[in-house]
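Person: I have long wanted to understand how a fold can be written as tokens. Underneath my words sits a plain record pairing an amino acid chain with its backbone structure tokens. Those tokens are not coordinates but codes from a learned vocabulary of shapes. I should like you to check that the lines agree and flag anything odd. The protein I mean follows directly.
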Amino acid sequence: MLAATATTLTEAVEALALAAAGGVALAVLFAWSPWLEKTLLPLAIALQVTPLIAIAPLLLIYLQPKAAVLACAFLVAFFPILSNASAGLGATDRGLIELFRLKGASRLKILLWLRLPAALPQIFTGLRIGGVLSLIGAVAAELAAGASGQGEGLAFRIVEAGYRLKIPMMYAAVVLLCLCGVALYGGLAALDAILLRRWRDEPRY
């Protein structure tokens, strides 16, 4: 069970890291080019609203189980990070932007030195949401992999225990999944509190 827990948590963290890198990078591109945002945002929305339980079996056909789980977790976590980062980049104080322009700052400098730092609280909000969703995506993909007789992780152990009528093992796996979610969210919240302490108007408890 501990090995399965480590597998599921590792998959969720890896997917979150990929989603964070991709989501923030794409949000920066959207902020740089509104035309690009109008072009690609509908595709991101379409991926988000498509039920994951329908995507996972298709991915398992073309990918190895571990890669399919990682892809599912990435797809679920990607959009919240992208949307929150885009909202943060678009909510920069207009007065500060005009001040940077008066000082002769280029468009790139305004983006990197003003808009991106100002968006960090929103980005971390997206990371906390995406962290929990990445775990959900990993579990959904593992359930699909377990139903097809392949894969590993806590959700796979749940399917296996169900086939063998090992009810205590199923309860143990569910509890471990809950603990993984709490640990993932708590770690991201702690990182938020440490790195963004100066960004907060009020202390967070």
Notes: The chain has a mean pLDDT of 86. The two ends are 34 Å apart (CA to CA). DSSP finds nine helices and no strands in the chain.
